[in-house]
Every structure is written in C-alpha cells, then in structure tokens.
Q: What sequence folds into this?
C-alpha cells in the first residue's frame, strides 16, 4: 500500500526506504549512547558496592582495635601481654603492643578516609552520568518533535486557527 502511494507521487520506493532508514539513524545512535552511559553507571554502582563492603570491614576492624586499646588501659605495668605468632603465643612488651595497635588504628582510619573519598567521587560520577542521560533524552525528544510529521489533528487545528483569524480580519 505504501509503495502505491510512492508510485502515484513519482517517488522511488527503494529511495524512500533509504530515507526512512537514514532518518532512524540518529535515534539509534542516541539510544546506543544512552545504553553506554547506563552501563557506565552500572559499573560505578558495582565498584561502590565493593567500596561499601570494604568500608564496613574497616569499621569492624577499627571497633575491634579500639576495644583492644581500651583494654590496655586496664592493665598495670606488671601484666603480661602475648602476641599470636603463627601457632605460638609470644610474650610482648605492653608499650610495644600498645604502639602496634595505635599504628594499626591510624592505618585503618586512613583507609576509611580514602574509601569514603573514593565513594564520594563515584557518587559524583554517577550523578553526572545520570544528568548526561537526562540531557541526551531531552535532546532526543526535542529533535524528534522537530522532525515529526504533523498529524491530522495538527492540520485540523491549523485550519481552525486560520479560519478564526479570517473571521477577525473581516470584522
């Protein structure tokens, strides 16, 4: 049926098919760009899930080490402290053991700070990607509206408005 209209109008059906195909290309390209951005957001979310897990583990270690440090406060100078070295418990100086735990806490705090900064950076990247997708969708919709063929409702509306304007001119 469509090719009959083309023949009546003197349009080559193959050429018309090519034109329709080419008209769809920007839409296909825009869709591929949006899909690529969505995949990037998904990668960011996977990385953030790993970071959240690592942060949780470091908070657990921090709480454990803070508890150990607190326990050192209850010991007197004559108390014995033992360190597990492989399968053996080795006696260790209280001051040295306390210093080791404090260093470990400092390292854990640095790692938590680093992870939180990385999470913040990923959140910003994810938000930027989401905003880019929205902008691409809006641009695509605007382009689609520009190239949209007017339907019968638009012709009827235009005829109505032009008829109304002619009436105003006569008055």
A:
């Amino acid at each position: 049926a469509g090719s009959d209209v083309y023949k009546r109008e003197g349009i080559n059906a193959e050429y018309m098919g090519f034109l329709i195909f080419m008209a769809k290309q920007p839409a296909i390209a825009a869709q591929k760009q949006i899909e690529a951005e969505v995949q990037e957001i998904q990668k960011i979310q996977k990385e953030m899930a790993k970071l959240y897990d690592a942060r949780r583990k470091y908070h657990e270690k921090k709480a454990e080490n803070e508890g150990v440090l607190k326990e050192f406060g209850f010991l007197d100078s004559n108390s014995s402290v033992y360190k597990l070295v492989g399968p053996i418990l080795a006696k260790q100086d209280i001051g040295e053991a306390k210093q080791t735990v404090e260093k470990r806490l400092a390292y854990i705090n640095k790692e938590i700070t680093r992870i939180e900064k990385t999470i913040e950076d990923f959140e910003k990247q994810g938000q930027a990607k989401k905003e880019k997708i929205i902008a691409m969708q809006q641009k695509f919709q605007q382009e689609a509206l520009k190239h949209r063929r007017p339907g019968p409702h638009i012709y009827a509306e235009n005829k109505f408005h032009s008829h109304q304007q002619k009436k105003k001119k006569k008055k």
